[in-house]
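Course assignment 3, question 2. Fill in each field.
Student: A.L.
Task: Predict the tertiary structure for the chain below.
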Amino acid sequence: MRNITIILIALLSIAIQSNAQKFITKSGNITFYSDGPLEKIEARNTQVNSALDIKTGDFVFKVLMKSFVFEKALMQEHFNENYVESDKFPVAILKGKVTNISYDEFSTKGKYDAFVEGELTMHGETHKITANGTFDISKKGIVGISKFKIELADYNISIPGAVTGKIAEEIEISVDVMLKPLNK
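Answer field:
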């Protein structure tokens, strides 16, 4: 009986330790910005799911496209119906890895420069991306911040002929998440 108790305690300790290596959020922030000759377009999404495994550096972001909010309702409608076709392609997913921060650094308070590599899947297309950012590690969790740009054409998002040349073909994506330990 004593051996069974020791084994159960050991297994429980391993399970708790592996969960302590995972950080998540369901309320991250992603904004995108486009500054074209005709119009500046900006939208924010605060329903971003993200997870980070500090042991491996692996991360994932999942974004519901219809959760982007625009200043003008008509822009939001055009975004969902004409550009990203949210009914057909409801989510964007970014899977990748933090390549320059070790487990020890993720376990130590401080602010660290980060380099991430991954694949962004959006509108049925997947492309590699790289980005710089920062991780600020504290008792409260891990704040991750990054900016990167994508070309709309890479994701088969076309700009209607009537506004070609008036809307930017490249957008800047900003990420700001507060990740908390999975077991808290």
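Instructor remarks: Helices lie at 2-19, 73-83, 103-106. The first strand starts at residue 22 and ends at 35.
Grade: pending
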